[in-house]
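Repro:
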Amino acid sequence: MSVPTGPRIITSRFDVADGHTYAGYVRTGGYASLRKALSSMTPQQVHDEVKAAEIQGRGGAGFPAGTKWGFLPADVHPRYLVINGDESEPGTYKDRMLMELDPHQLIEGIVIACYALNAAQAFLYVRGEMALAQERLAQALNEAYANNMVGKNICGSNFSVDVTLTWGAGAYIVGEETALIESLEGERGMPRLKPPFFPAVKGLYMQPTIVNNVETLANVPYIVGKGGSEFKSLGAPTSTGMRMFAVSGHVNKPGVFEVPNGVTTFRMLFEAPEYCGGVRNGGKVKAFIPGGASAMWFFPEHLDMALDKPTVDKAGSMLGSGAIVVMDDTTDMVAACWRIVRFFARESCGKCTPCREGTTWLERVLKRMLDGHGRPEDIDLLFEVSESISPGIAWPPRQTTICPLGPSAVSPIASAVRRFRHEFEHYIEHGRPINGVESPFHANAVSHA
């Protein structure tokens, strides 16, 4: 199978033994883009290069980073850059790899972004469970301060910035940017209403704030070093550059892969020897989640679709956080649906009633089916509860909640029940999976600890 290729931009040091250290980073060209920006470019020129690259945010929404930077009100200070390293979408682990294996690349991107934004303070927020990422980033920050890549008068320039490393307690909801800001302020991580709390206007400490994803900022050194037009020439016109995808599930070689954005297809990613190497045990794809657990599921007819944001959006799902989960033809779809819904029910912050109560009810009804006590009316009940959380049960979702967590629990319901209704009906009638084989995802096959 012939697959499109491109340069490894942000994963090039993953195979370098000391790539996470200052010495290893500088030896392989690190911090050259920062020196270039500070010595020969104005903040506006840096911003213009990022806009020219048309890089879409890699955290989920896919909003162009250069455009987002432009939302900051002029001459309002202080202003902050917040880096969202609270990667917590099930199946997503690309940002963790970046923080563990190439932390200096992220730090360089942060400092360049602060220069472009005229921000003197950045906050790097890392998920609570990512102990190695925290350690590597702390070490890298100490090295960067010691070598004048962060701090006062960086590289002998007039620009100064501090980067504060902090981490959460492992709540999924703080991956939402306003909930992350609440957590940074020492409050319980709960989303804020938008409007009026758009971070670019009223963000951290009610000051203008830009929130960017780890992978987004890790691309900034390449964009500044090579130019925005060079970055844009990679991938597709509608999805520029290279992009990381974390593939898990029923493939021979799960892992993180950096591929040409918008050109590579799902089939290439799953089957090519240089990527996942095919479905396990010679099986076939039954379904796959294209953009994290909150995305609508795709099916075999979508395999030849390109990993292109507009294309995937139009087809009724999203690339989201870059997490792809493959399910083969042995998968118990009722159990898989329950496992995802259970996650969102447990991670609901409780602020919005439809999410707090609705996700819990969805989980309970599915669990009842798996335990062999399903009722004929349960399928309609699942849709009734889903409708109260996300009216219309469509994509993109309408919501009765402040943030999209509630509708995220509806996605697996809508995807699995509509496509595999017969499997749900079989559970209700017979109290067991349709293929008679209990899945590892099954409620009774896993610990509830």
